[in-house]
């Protein structure tokens, strides 16, 4: 788990330094009938393991603007790291923090109960 976390941070940092904040999409240029149009982009992170406030601060300082955090696991239980990840992301200055879930359709709990069980 620690190696995965370190790998994810390394990839995030490499991407944030290698890719420009604005991407280009080729739609044609005058010489060859193709123009270049500037397209705005933003970076976000999808998490399913525990991240500290320092981890989120590092991501924020490297251009990441939003976090999507796993809130429910497919075996039918809330992710134990969800609440602390949400708080750490907000404390690090992430304005946009969302939660996703992997519902458990074979569990005896209804979808509504599974969402309520997340408690967030």
From TrEMBL:
Molecular function GO terms recorded: lysozyme activity
UniProt KW Cell cycle keyword: no
Keywords: Signal
InterPro entries xrefs: GH, GH25_Enzymes, Glyco_hydro_25
Top-level taxonomic group: Eukaryota
Keyword Transcription: no
Signal peptide residue numbers: 1-18
Record-level GO BP terms: cell wall macromolecule catabolic process; peptidoglycan catabolic process
Family: Belongs to the glycosyl hydrolase 25 family.
Protein name (record): Probable GH family 25 lysozyme 2
Organism: Geodia barretti
